[in-house]
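ok trying again, last paste got cut off:
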Amino acid sequence: MAVAIRLRQEGSKGHLFYRVVAADQRYKRDGRFIEVLGTYDPQKKGENNANLDLAKVNEWISKGAQPTETVRSLIKKASKAAAK
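nice, full thing came through this time. structure:
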């Protein structure tokens, strides 16, 4: 089973937000998932629009999960914010 760390779209039309989830690569974008790792709200302004549990994310990456490009950039931003 190949696990991907990706965004799961939620909310309503015009008010979308995303959950960062660990899911089997074969599942649909908004389908089943294994674990919620955080949230991302593109509607919020500033750098505080992503809320990730970096410990869980790092645990999944150590198990072999592959983050998508978008999630990879969110992880990088969250890591910089946590280092401050």
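cool. The chain has one domain: 3-83. Strands lie at 3-12, 15-24, 35-40, 50-52, 66-67.
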